[in-house]
Amino acid sequence: MQNINNIESLIVRSFSEALAPEEQERLNAWLNESGENQRHYMQLLNIWQSSHPAFDVDSIDVESAEKRVMSQLDKPSLLQMPVWVWWQRIAAVLLLPVLLIMGYLMISRYSQPKNLAYQDVSSPYGAISRVSLPDGSSVWLNSGSRLRFPSAFDGKERHVVLIGEGFFEVHADKSHPFIVETAKMNVRATGTRFNVEAYSSDTLVAVTLVEGKVDVNIEDKIRTNLQPDQRIVYNSNSHKYDLTNTDAQRWALWKDGKLVFRDEPLDEVFKRLSRAFNVDISVKDKTIAKQPYRATFEGESLDEILRLLKLTSPLRYERSGKVKLQNDTYRKEKIEVYKSE
């Protein structure tokens, strides 16, 4: 765990200035370590916001304001009115600036948007990550996915942005809908469980509902709602979609480390294997690309899966191995798949 004093220094600085990229990465990594870290962050944020009001009380010259008001009073009429009425007028004049200041501070505190920090969490290729959101919701990010969300949901909606694939368990709150924004569609929910597939490199995006109800808005042209065990798949090239009934649970098994294929084309199988194991697999023979395949893998290595695929399908493959680059990083291993002779 990183030194707490250094982390608190980063947190406080993030409230008033932009951190350097490497500092922001350190802060994000610390926040993702535990829910306790996130709660400590929110406590510091609340303290900072309370001590930095948008209205500078010291800049108000109450004495000058009082003199201007008193100078406009009708002095002869003051001499003619009873003393108790005169003092009521004076008290009202003195109290008015104080009431205005208090009213302004209260309105500003609850109506002006807060300077919220945003977090970007990425799940590296070959890994699955779990993220706890400020409202108690949970998100599992599949390999190569990214989620952006605020440090606190402060508004009428709980809004997050997803690139890649994520499984959402949304904390129920009907008065504050939960919005998942992707490049091609938005998903609106209250309390529910669903899976979203929205990799930027894919032409297909999909939503599969496990429990509850969600509303799907695709490019502001297609609007529909899903019932449990329904799945919608949208093709951004053809601008067409399919809404089907399915066993929704199997589309969420990836978060438990399982790869489930049910009559899926081999090119889709290899695409998912590429992400899961951080390799570059390409099908070079179109005659086998659309061949359906059924299997369930759990805990097998890539070598074992490739061996099983070779035994059960008419294919062969060639592996290039990892290549070290000049910057001491490695290029992804390449695997080319051909139809067996």
Note down, in words, how this protein is organized.
This protein is α+β, with helices and mostly antiparallel strands. The chain has nine helices and 20 strands. Helix 4 crosses helix 6 (83-111). The longest helix is centred in the N-terminal third of the chain and has 29 residues, at 83-111.
Short description:
33% of the residues lie in helices and 33% in strands. With 341 residues, it is an alpha+beta fold.
Topology:
Blueprint: H1 4-16, H2 21-31, H3 35-51, H4 62-71, H5 75-80, H6 83-111, E1 118-123, E2 129-132, E3 138-141, E4 145-150, E5 158-169, E6 178-181, E7 185-189, E8 193-198, E9 204-211, E10 214-218, E11 222-226, E12 230-235, E13 240-245, E14 258-265, H7 266-277, E15 280-283, H8 286-289, E16 292-298, H9 302-312, E17 315-319, E18 323-324, E19 330-331, E20 334-339
Parallel strand pairs: 5-6, 15-20
Antiparallel strand pairs: 1-4, 2-3, 3-5, 4-5, 5-8, 6-7, 7-10, 8-9, 9-12, 10-11, 12-13, 14-16, 17-20, 18-19
Instruction: Estimate percent helicity.
Output: 25-40%
Radius of gyration: 30 Å
Main beta sheet, described? 13 strands, mixed
Count of helices? 9
User: Low-confidence parts, pLDDT < 50 over ≥5 residues?
Assistant: 53-60, 107-113
Shape: globular
User: Distance between the terminal alpha carbons, to the nearest Å?
Assistant: 54 Å
Strand share of the residues? Answer: 25-35%
Mean pLDDT score, rounded? 81
Overview features:
alpha+beta; 13-stranded mixed β-sheet
